[in-house]
Amino acid sequence: MDRGSAMRDPEPRSIQRETLVDVHGVPLFSSTLEKWAPLWSFKARPDDLLICTYPKAGTTWLQEIVEMVQSGGDPQKCARAPIYKRIPFIEIVHPLLAGLEDAEAMPSPRTLKTHLPAQLVPPSFWEQNCKIIYVARNAKDNAVSYFHFHRMDQEMPEPGTWDEFLENFMAGKVAWGSWSDHVKGWWEAKDRHPILYLFYEDMKEDLTREIRKVAHFLDKELPEAVLNRIVEHTTFDNMKANPMANYDTIPPSVMDPAVSTFMRKGIVGDWKEHFTVAQSEHLDEVCARELRGHGLNFRMEL
Ligand code: A3P
Fold first, then answer.
1. 174 lies in which domain range?
2. Nearest alpha carbon, ligand 1 atom 18
């Protein structure tokens, strides 16, 4: 029996690649558009916490950190179910993943997940002044991670070759749209809303420091021993080995670990293995142009 198969979710009846449609200028899954009305009128509650990211920026990592912080460092609480069932992903419509209806049925306080750009987040999150934590990751590593995710997740749109995927990524023609619009939009939103804006590279550099920021933002006092336990629980190696955090419970017909694992490398600078010099320079130019004047700086290596 292969690793994790005993507790794996059943295969969904049909596995099809998602198609992208334009939703107010942002390419999203057509299944999201079909449920747009209930999503837009979703009733956030004042004590909701929203975890927001561009896809593959470190969402799962932050989700596990938040769950550990909120539970006072209790790994048993995090072991109650796979991460994608513990924290509803509000715009996703999928038989295996908790979504909008699960969020509605969930008792407070809720932690919810989205990849939506700031302008498409349901208005009640702003009206209720909900706390939001955002993680941003440098565009190059983010693009590489997203490419491999498209390869392994049989429900993502067909990625094509790396060169083709990168062109689409730079043009914002991938699911959830332009990386630079996303990181910029949330960066601006933090000036008018309670948003903790984190960087993947900072988390890699000093996880203890960044978890302290999360705890402070959530008004949680963590004794040093608890903090250390959370750091240990959320290292890449430990999350990769944790079936409740590593997506191994998703059937391989959906996420194929033979192609690439969900917990793939978890490093800063893997882009160097993928980008040509010309591609790297081109993305540098795109980022410089699109982020100019925003005071947003990304580290490409540590
Ligand atoms: P790589 O593909 O570069 O390895 P998301 O959760 O937003 O889908 O992001 C997934 C990316 O975050 C993957 O990046 C994954 O390996 C990385 N990741 C997940 N948990 C991590 C951890 N504890 N430490 C470092 N990186 C982590």
1. 20-291
2. 266
